[in-house]
């Protein structure tokens, strides 16, 4: 007994000594403190930072004069949308691309599609995607990486361009007046929490039934009943989607279904007519990649993209804008954003001078260390080219309301574009054959939990 106690004490002492080898010892703390020799400037900076935002103090006022709003090439657009307190930027961006096409085609002064209508079906489809995923993985343990990922992400209001192609291709679109916004569609936090909580509960019930020997047909029946509950929750929050409606254009009134409306006025093949591009220098360029389970419907397609150098992507973007065609675009929007002026510029803030140290990681290193990734989708609609045809700056139509940024837009320098632009979706007619050939490769399959592919909000 005494030997056991002594052995335990010795083991604990050894563990403590090993832990201390990498810890901050009193001696190490003294060396660290002694290395800091505060100057009068440090005192002034501390006093300022004690009561002021770091971004306010780091704002580079020398850069305020360099605010040029001229663009050599710009797609005409009318009306800024507002996603309010929701994560539906991906949906607003996709619908803004389509409405610009419809307005140009039919000479309309204004047009807006119902985000609420599409979002209803997006949430229903995501619920089914989760529940079917639980059924598919029923024989795997709870500790399995895929099962864990499913329960961590049962549903969300964020998304990707795959949501546009999956949802609109299946359910069509309607004008905004046919199914207007509700409080819950504009403030999605609470309903998202409730839906997620219910789906996790349903997921456990399906796994329990499977563990007790329930056949797949029985599980599918349970899933159907569960989706009925989700449908009711969605109908209470957003209203029930319309099935038929009348709409007038150029003095002619007709009845449409959401699908017939889309086919009549747009009719785009959203799956086959668009190419998704990525600039991710942490992975090999000129390769095709697919993200597992990165879709909005179970019967949809995973997001598949071509990874390209930034200069290749710019060429296609310029080609599209010159042809008056907007594009789905996403980036790390919070980096160096001056929200009042609506500019994205590496020189907006001088954190290095304020903090007395440099921040030297490049784009590849920021991706590898999870310091940067795509966070927000917008509509790329303008570029300013120099005399040699090289981009100087770009502009996007945002969905934060007309009062946000530069009249509802954000203007980014080309240098910022290089560092924080990640994704672009372009029509195939603007894509070189060499890039289209890459899509014929067998894609490299990446896991659903890859941090580079978080949803855009």
Short description, anyone?
By secondary structure, the chain is α+β, with helices and mostly antiparallel strands. Helix content is 44%, strand content 15%. The protein is built from 17 helices and 14 strands.
Folded structure, characterized:
With 457 residues, this protein is an alpha+beta fold. It folds into 2 domains: 89-265, Alpha-Beta Complex (Cathepsin B, Chain A), CATH 3.90.70; 270-453, Cathepsin B, Chain A (Alpha-Beta Complex), CATH 3.90.70. Helix content is 44%, strand content 15%. The protein has helices spanning 2-21, 26-35, 40-49, 54-58, 89-106, 115-136, 145-152, 161-171, 183-186, 189-211, 216-238, 258-265, 310-322, 351-355, 363-368, 414-420, 433-438, and strands spanning 73-74, 245-249, 252-256, 274-278, 287-291, 304-307, 327-331, 337-338, 343-344, 376-385, 391-397, 409-413, 421-427, 444-446. Strands 1, 4, 5, 6, 7, 8, 9, 10, 11, 12, 13 and 14 form a 12-stranded mixed β-sheet that branches. Strands 2-3 form a two-stranded antiparallel sheet. α6 (115-136) packs across α8 (161-171), α6 (115-136) runs parallel beside α10 and α6 (115-136) runs antiparallel to α11. It is globular. It starts with a helix and ends in an 11-residue tail after the last strand. The model has no long low-confidence stretch (mean pLDDT 92).
């Amino acid at each position: 007994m005494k030997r056991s106690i002594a052995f335990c004490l010795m083991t604990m002492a050894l563990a403590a000594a090993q832990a201390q080898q990498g810890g901050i010892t009193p001696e190490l703390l003294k060396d660290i403190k002694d290395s800091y020799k505060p100057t009068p400037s440090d005192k002034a900076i501390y006093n300022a930072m004690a009561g002021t935002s770091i971004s306010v103090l780091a704002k580079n006022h020398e850069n305020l004069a360099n605010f040029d709003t001229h663009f050599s090439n710009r797609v005409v657009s009318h009306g800024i949308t507002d996603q309010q307190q929701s994560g539906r930027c991906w949906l607003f961006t996709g619908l803004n691309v389509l409405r610009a096409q419809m307005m140009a085609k039919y000479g309309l002064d204004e047009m807006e599609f119902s985000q609420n209508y599409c979002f209803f079906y997006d949430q229903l489809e995501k619920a089914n995607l989760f529940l079917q995923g639980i059924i598919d993985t029923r024989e795997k343990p709870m500790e399995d990486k895929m099962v864990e990922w499913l329960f961590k992400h049962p549903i969300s209001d964020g998304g990707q361009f795959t949501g546009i192609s999956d949802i609109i291709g299946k359910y069509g679109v309607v004008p905004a007046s046919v199914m207007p916004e509700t409080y819950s569609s504009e403030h999605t936090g609470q309903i998202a929490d409730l839906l997620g909580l219910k789906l996790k509960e349903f997921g456990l019930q399906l796994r329990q039934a499977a563990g007790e020997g329930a056949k797949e047909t029985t599980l599918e029946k349970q899933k159907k009943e569960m989706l009925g509950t989700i449908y009711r929750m969605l109908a209470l929050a957003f209203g029930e989607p319309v099935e038929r409606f009348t709409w007038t254009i150029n003095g002619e009134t007709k009845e449409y279904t959401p699908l017939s409306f889309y086919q009549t006025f747009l009719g785009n093949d959203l799956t086959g007519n668009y190419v998704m591009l990525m600039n991710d220098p942490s992975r090999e360029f000129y390769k095709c990649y697919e993200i597992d389970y990165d879709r909005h419907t179970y019967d949809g397609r995973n997001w598949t993209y071509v990874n390209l150098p930034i200069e290749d992507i710019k060429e296609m973007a310029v080609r599209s804008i010159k042809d008056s065609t907007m594009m789905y675009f996403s980036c790390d929007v919070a980096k160096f954003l001056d929200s009042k002026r609506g500019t994205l510029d590496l020189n907006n803030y001088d954190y290095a001078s304020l903090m007395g140290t440099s921040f030297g990681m490049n784009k590849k290193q920021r991706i590898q260390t999870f310091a940067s990734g795509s966070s927000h989708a917008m509509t790329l609609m303008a570029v300013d080219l120099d005399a040699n045809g090289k981009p100087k700056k770009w502009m996007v139509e945002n969905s934060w309301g007309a009062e946000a940024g530069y009249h509802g837009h954000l203007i980014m320098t080309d240098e910022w574009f290089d560092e924080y632009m990640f994704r672009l979706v372009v029509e195939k007619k603007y894509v070189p054959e060499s890039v289209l050939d890459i899509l014929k490769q067998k894609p490299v399959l990446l896991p659903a939990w890859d941090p580079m592919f978080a949803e855009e909000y």
